[in-house]
Amino acid sequence: MRRTPPVPHPDPDPRRPRVRTRTAAGAAAAGALALAAAALVAPPQAAQAAEVHCKAVYTVQNDWGSGFQATVTVTNLGTAWTSWTLGFSYGGNQSLSSGWNGSWTQSGRDVTVTSLPWNAAVPSGGSVAPAATFGYSGANAGPTAFTVNGVPCDGSGPTAPPTSPPPTSQPPTTPPPTDPPTTPPAGPAPALHVSGNRLVTAAGAPYRLLGVNRSSGEFACVQGKGVWDGPADQATVDAMRGWNVHAVRLPLNEECWLDTTSGTPAGGTTGAAYRKAVKDYADLLVANGINVVLDLHWSHGQYTGPGTGCPDTGATCQKPMPDLQYAPTFWKQVAETFKGNDAVLFDLFNEPYPDAADNWADATAAWTCLRDGGSCPGIGYPVAGMQSLVDAVRATGATNVVMTGGLTWTNDLSQWLAYAPKDPTGNLMASWHSYSWNGCVTASCWDSTIGAVAAKVPVQAGEIGQKTCAHDYIDQVMAWADAHGVGYSAWTWNPWGGCSSGGNVLVTDWNGTPTSTFGEGYRAHLLTQRP
Asked: Which H helix or E strand runs over 286?
């Protein structure tokens, strides 16, 4: 869709990259969140239903008087389920607003949640955590009884060993945990690859990238602030783990990596030192169970047209497309550095906007530019298309998953499937950004455009945010993404003076103290999720 670009406003914090004048923080207050407690459903046959054994724990994460968010964590205490249906009832006037981690419906006071394709299978000892928001007035008593497949979910286990093959090790002597994890599991992050429309682990288990952006690698090196404009150590990683972060997106600077910058200010870091800092931080995150997405954010090429962030030829702001002069070399070197580590993913270009550069004159030309590059209307330097960047990565033998975006700062994926680059490994996924001021901001738009892509390939919402310090808009994005198996990472894990200083700031310090209320809302939601 053709949309006019947002009007940039002054950057309130000199530490921040100039390109981020489109910063965000939230839209209107969201509906009350309630997590319906769950009766998980095993197969529908009566014989199978009779074998259902489970425990349900109902938790309200946030109650603001007219609405609330709730999660029902259901643990399977019996044989494995191939699908599940959770049921429970409220005693008051609680009314479902939106739900995720399951398909939610309500009839009168009765709430039903059915499994989605990606979380239908629940092994013995496994858990699911459907969550939702609700509105209400008066009292807000929680449900007291839950069913799965019509069988009471009362916390009892089987009276005899399950008929499925016995485990290879001794069963635990205590019941499995009933609460969702608050940190990624111990051990390194999983190697990932694409299977159909899902990211999966080496064992074939579906996996979503749920986490945060850590900005600074794109701007600090050319602003005299080192590489990360703050610590990048175990303590900061521990803080992220405390939020249940499973993925961190790291925006990078093309010329700092290649050491082609000129006049780097004192304190700036380029070349070998920059590359080592990126490698060390990525390795630290992966070792702590957190997948890494490396993103080409600031690049070379003079551009002064619509949506421009700077008049500079050098990589000091975001440009409408990557340049042919340096971008393929950048990705060739990044791929050589991380080849063999498939816990690291490559986001080939942050937010393409060749359609804006051409004043939305020709959508076909813009999509062709995105894929094929070359000489593109409105852009005065030779462009590297997504196909050339995929080719640069694959020429090294790297099989890491790669992401490519759409138009209009990658909010528009309407023609992504028609213009997707070819990837001989099949490890290609779509990158999508969603802010409250974008053109596609409703569930109906997401259903018709993003949903069509997500039905074919994995989709990652690499940046989400909104215009105010609330979290109502990102709540809607996350609810939709959870229901469609889409991952997301919020902008941004940087203590830039609080959310109101420029929007979309998640933390007030490097210890992970959340901002009010944007960071608080995002953290509360992450803590309900499993990748």
From this structure: helix 271-287
CATH number for domain 208-526, candidates 3.40.50.150, 3.40.50.300, 3.20.20.80, 3.30.420.40: 3.20.20.80
191-246 pLDDT, tens digit per residue, is 999 999 999 999 999 999 999 999 999 999 999 999 999 999 999 999 999 999 99
How do residues 50-68 score in pLDDT, each as one tens digit? 468 999 999 886 677 787 8
Q: Please name the residues in contact with 66: beta carbons below 8 A apart, sequence gap of 6 or more.
A: 32, 135, 136, 137
**Tokens at 240, concatenated:** 């992220």
Distance separating alpha carbons of residues 119 and 117, to the nearest angstrom: 6
Which one, of 489, 486, 506, lies nearest residue 497 by Cα?
506
Rounded to a whole number of angstroms, the CA Rg of the chain reads: 23
Nearest to 208 by CA among 456, 459, 417, 430: 459
Contact 500, 25 (CB under 8 A): yes
**3-state secondary structure (DSSP) of residue 433:** strand
Predicted TM-score (pTM) of this structure: 0.70
Q: Is the pLDDT of residue 181 over 60?
A: no
* Amino acid identity at 194: V
Beta bridge partners of 383: 323, 374
* Tokens representing residue 288 in the block: 């702590």
Residue corresponding to tokens 């190697």: 191
CB atoms within 10 A of CB 60: 15
Beta pairing class for 428-435 and 459-465: parallel
264 SS3 class: coil
Cβ neighbourhood burial of 14 (10 Å; 0-12, 13-18, 19+): exposed
- Residue 371 to residues 354, 366, 444, 470, 480, Cα–Cα distance (Å): 11, 9, 27, 36, 28
Residues 420, 446, 521, 85, CA torsion sign: negative
List phi, psi (to 5°) of 117. -55, -35
Nearest to 530 by CA among 202, 203, 236, 289: 289
Bridge partner list, 201: 192
Give the closest residue to 453 by CA, choosing from 490, 405, 489: 405
* 485: nearest Cα among 100, 182, 130, 180: 100
Which among 364, 352, 497 is positioned nearest to 433, based on CA atoms? 352
Who has greater pLDDT, 127 or 21? 127
- Record the tokens describing residue 192, joined without a space: 């990932």
Residue 41: per-residue pLDDT: 39
Give the number of other Cβ atoms within 10 Å of residue 65's Cβ: 9
As beta bridge partners, residue 132 has 99
Cβ 220 vs Cβ 257: under 8 Å: no
pLDDT at 119: 80
Q: Are 40 and 102 in contact (CB under 8 A)?
A: no
Q: Are strands 146-148 and 85-89 parallel, antiparallel or unpaired?
A: antiparallel
